[in-house]
Amino acid sequence: MSNYGYARHFKFLKQSKVLLPDARVSNKFEEIAAKHYEMIKQNIFQNQQLTQLRDWLLPMLMNGQVSIK
Fold it and tell me: Which of 6, 28, 30, 52 is most open to solvent, judged by the fewest CB atoms within 10 Å of its CB?
């Protein structure tokens, strides 16, 4: 297995043509995508908080220190 990473594919990339959108299209995409990335970031943060809460609460539920009504 090669340890050159992407360098081994660079020769193919150099031979390829890449289309770039104009600034208007690029800015519109960023405007739409930024909202989704922010939602993803918030969901990741909330999942971390819920995981911590579960890890704290589950042992107490299992040994009877707390119960659910």
Answer: 6
In a domain, 1, yes or no: no
- Residues 17, 23, 25, 31, CA torsion sign: positive
Farthest-apart Cα atoms in the chain, separation: 67
Q: Indicate the pTM of the whole model.
A: 0.60
Q: Which domain holds residue 56?
A: 20-69
Rounded CA separation 68/9 (Å): 57
Average pLDDT over residues 16-24: 92
* Residue appearing with tokens 């043509």: 17
Q: Identify the residue whose tokens are 């908080």.
A: 49
Number of domains in the chain: 1
